[in-house]
Amino acid sequence: MHFVLPADVEDPGSPSGGNVYDLRVSAGMTRLTVAGDWPRPADPTALEQALAAIPHGDVVLLDGLVSCGLPEIVVPHTRRLEIAVLVHLPLADETGLDPATAALLNDKEGQVLRAARAVIATSPTAARNIAERHGLSEVHVVVPGTDPAPLAHGTDGVHHLLCVASITPRKGHDLLVRALRTIDRDWRLTCVGPHRPFLRELPRDARVSFPGPLAGEALTSAYTSADLFVLASRAETYGMVVTEALAHGLPIIASAVPDALGDGGLLIPAGDESALVAALTRWFEDQDFRADLRSRALARRARLSTWERSTEDLRRVLATLRP
Fold this sequence. Notes:
By secondary structure, the protein is an alpha/beta fold. The chain has helices at residues 17-25, 45-52, 64-67, 71-77, 99-115, 124-134, 173-181, 216-224, 240-247, 258-261, 273-285, 287-301, 307-319, and strands spanning 2-6, 30-34, 59-63, 82-87, 118-121, 140-141, 160-164, 188-192, 208-212, 228-231, 252-255, 266-268. The chain is 39% helix and 16% strand.
């Protein structure tokens, strides 16, 4: 089996849930990384060359970021290769696209997915959305796994908040910082994640720190020293950082992550700043609410899936494509 994915998948300076997922489930596959500014590279020949080099009839898994914007390259290869496409985020759902660009990307994505032998999403909600928007009869679901993690000890149990996400409009850091600045408490917020140009547009506040991407012990320390995990995303397909936080038993307030969060925390409407302010205010003022969120996180922690199961689920889907 072959897996075609973005060249930055192993770049420690560009961590993402999609990259982690790709690396964890691709053990045993032949990885073919393709360089480019995906999903709209200036030169798409890297993808064409990668697909052309794969023997006729082989099973190929394509990351949606490198494939869904280029039906003119991918669709012809579906006639000689057994192609499956893994969609982390529908291309048109990226925040900040103008309507014409979003419509064009959505059309291109539909052409690729309808031609593929199988389409895979990372959550039930995402699968339903993809099937409906592109008229697909079936979209398989392979949810991300989690690793065992130490329980968070926090600080004072209230005031240290953590967000782990790339600094982009879709992740809602602007909503989060604005909401917190309305609350007259001695809070502090640590925003872990790659710095992007959007960082310059965020309100400045001495209580908010941006240490950049963290990994290993540094990331574990960020989780274990937090009192509350908060994610104000405008759109997600799953939200792996949420299950990472749950693995540490962290209380959670988040948006756009119904499948990852489950009943393990408080889910608020995406993009609703008033709801975010209300939830955070309640967190600071209501001891019973804090205790309830901790209890819910611990219960969900005990039921989290593993990466071994994710890998096996993906293998079962791909095995059905063998001629």
